[in-house]
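re the bet — no i am not wrong, look at it urself. input seq straight from the record:
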Amino acid sequence: MVSLGNDWDSILADEFQKDYYLQLRKFLKMEYSTRRIFPDMYDIFNALRYTAPESVKVVILGQDPYHGMGQAHGLCFSVKRGVKPPPSLQNIFKEIHDELHIAPPAHGELTSWAKQGVLLLNTVLTVIEGIPNSHKGRGWEKFTDRVIAHVNSFDRPIVYLLWGANARSKKALITNPRHLVLESPHPSPLSACSGFFGNGHFLSANRFLEKNGLLPIDWSLPN
C-alpha cells in the first residue's frame, strides 16, 4: 500500500489498483529481493511526497534514476548530500549561474526545489545498479503519464521544463493552454552545448510565475 501523505493519495488511488500497476509491483518485489535496485524502495515516490498536487508550479521531467551507489533518492537529477553532482546536474547549475548569477552549490540535493513546488519526476522510477533504462517498459511510463496528465488538468498556470528527447516526447500530454512548455536539449555533456546552455529556462519560468501572481522559485540551494 503506497501512502504519499498528501492529495496524490486520492488522485492516484485508482491507479494503484490497476492491473498494470499490480504487475509492476509484483515485478519490483522480485527485483528488490534479488538485485540492487535504486533508489531505496522507500524513496521511489519522493517526487510526489515532497511536492503535493496543490503545490506544483514547475515540472521537470527526467528519464530514470541515477544507477550508481548512493545517488538516486526519488527526485530527478538530484543526488544525496555527500555525493558529487553528476555532469548533467553540474550543467544545470552552470546554466542557473549564467542566467541568475547564483553560485553553484556545494551539493546536489534538490529537495528544497521540490518543497517550493518543483515536481522532479522521472518517467521511470526505478533502475538496476549500473544498467540505465533497465526498468524501461515495465509499466512506470504508464503511471507517470497519468501523473503528467493530472498536472495538465490543474487550472492554475504551471511551467514544464522538457530537456531531451525523452522529456519532450511527453509534450503531447500537455494540452492545457494555461501552462507554459519550455523545451531544449538535455543537460548531458553530450548535448548541453547544442542548446541547453543559454536556454534561459530558469529565468523564463520565474517570470511566468510572477506574471501569473505566483512566487518565483529560489533556484539556489541551502548549504
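see?? Strands lie at 37-38, 58-62, 118-122, 127-128, 159-163, 180-184. told u. also The radius of gyration is 17 Å. so pay up
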